[in-house]
Amino acid sequence: MTDERIVELYWNRNESAVAETQSKYGRYLTKIAYNILTDMEDSLESVNDTYMYAWKSIPPHRPSVLSTYLAKITRRVAIDILRKKSRDKRIPSEYTFSLSELDDLVSNGRRMEEQLEAEELAKAMNAYLKTISAEARHLFVGRYFYMDSLKDVAKYCGMSEAKAKSMLYRTRCGLRAYLEQEGYLI
Amino acid sequence: MREEKYSEIIHDALNFLDDEMIEEVDCLRGGVSVESVSTHATMREEVKDFSQKKAKDAVDGVYKKSAPWRKWVALAASICLLFVAGNAWEMFQESAFDSENLSGGNQASDDRIEGDMEGIEADMEDINQSGSTGMASEVEDDMYGVQDNVDVNLGEQEEPGKPQSSENEADQEIVNLQNYTAVYFSEVKNQNPSDDYMVMLSEENCEILDKFLDSLQRGTTKVVDAASQSELMNKADGQLVFELENGTRFHLILIGDGLVCSYETQNVWIQMDKRVYRILMESLKENF
């Protein structure tokens, strides 16, 4: 079933919308959640929460690309579950690994504004990602949005792990410089 | 920890990435599924390394990158950069100085120098063919050009109070300057260089140059003027004017790897091997 038809089911408050969503995107969303939580039970729970949030938010939203819309929900839900369950404890997952990698964007001795809006930061990140090569952008999104392992990201981007790692590092450095230039004191 | 909080904010911001960017990667991911996730065993290994690294960072109080080889690469790159920068500086010094201020010396000498420059390379070949002395061939390797019939006024004003030397006399001596393995000095006294390519400085002049170079090393001699390439000395790469502690000034005309040193109104042609030249230039750089 196409995304438009599924979204139409949501708008019509047809409960088969959830079933159709699960049929089409269940594994896709579970993979995203598992990358973060590394626990199947928690991953399924977060995916179920995703269906619930989708049902509540459509309408008024009418996403044109359902996969991306659902991916963002799943990602947010899974991260919230992880943070809740492991505030001061390290759980092995691509999320925590990517967290340490993103520490490159943070410099010691500087302060980040406490009221930094994630959306404002995202605007800057979007602007920066549009300036880099498609290859680097795919790596970055695959690693830090989808939180796929470095191995997986390198594989579907068609490069070696070493090259992917190096390219990711350069992208992080470039993003940091860009954010500093734009006034995001990190 | 604060850094972790900031990283989390960045992760939150990633949730607002443009849909197009996400869709591009979605197409690439295609067959990525739950089954392609690393096994738990692999994850445990990664966690172990990760935990040990973080434990060490916690002790040190800072977050460090997990790739120590980077510092060696950075060190090697720095060394290469320094080497390249050093060579570039040398080349810059050779090409950036102007000998316009050369006129502090004798104008007649300058005119004659200008006229004589055309025969310099021919003279170099003569020196090669004549095979005059071993020192001459060694100088040839180092020298960029030799002035023919340069009136350096040595016969007139070689040094205050010193008896004038005949223009046809050639004093050959090797002067070992402090800390240098071998330095050859010559006074070009309006002679055909092929006959008198390695006319050496008198002892007094060597002592003066000794003091000069020593003062450069110690920093008591300062560069007070510099000029870019001169039209008069078309083979001169430039000139530096030095001032000693007692106020005496040296004009150094830089031509390739050789130096023409003008002591007050004198012109003394100094030929140094590249190593000495480099040492001298480093000293000049410190004072410049």
Q: Give the proportion of residues in helices of chain A.
A: 55-70%
Structural class of chain A: mainly alpha
Class by SSE composition of chain B: alpha+beta
Biggest sheet descriptor of chain A: none
**What string, H for helix and E for strand, traces the elements of chain B in order?**
HHHHHHHHEHEEEEEH
For the biggest sheet of chain B, the summary is: 6 strands, antiparallel
Mean pLDDT across every amino acid position of chain A: 84
Q: Mean pLDDT across all residues of chain B, rounded?
A: 53
Number of contiguous helices of chain A: 9
Give helix and strand order of chain A, one letter per element, not per position: HHHHHHHHH
Give an overview of the whole structure:
The complex is a heterodimer of chains A (186) and B (288). Chain A has 186 residues and is mainly α. Chain A contains 9 helices and no strands. Chain A has helices at residues 3-11, 16-37, 40-57, 66-85, 94-101, 118-129, 134-145, 150-157, 161-181. The longest helix of chain A is centred in the N-terminal third of the chain and has 22 residues, at 16-37. Chain A is globular, with a radius of gyration of 18 Å. The model of chain A is unreliable at 108-112 (pLDDT under 50). Chain B is an alpha+beta fold and 288 residues long. Chain B is built from 10 helices and 6 strands. Chain B has helices spanning 2-14, 19-29, 40-60, 69-96, 107-116, 120-130, 134-142, 154-157, 203-218, 274-287, and strands spanning 184-185, 222-227, 238-243, 249-255, 258-263, 268-271. The longest helix of chain B is centred in the N-terminal third of the chain and has 28 residues, at 69-96. Mean pLDDT of chain B is 53; it is low at 35-51, 61-65, 99-110, 112-117, 130-201, 228-237 and 255-276. Classes of the chains: A mainly alpha (186), B alpha+beta (288). At the A-B interface, helix 2, helix 4, helix 5, helix 6 and helix 7 of A face helix 1, helix 2 and helix 3 of B.
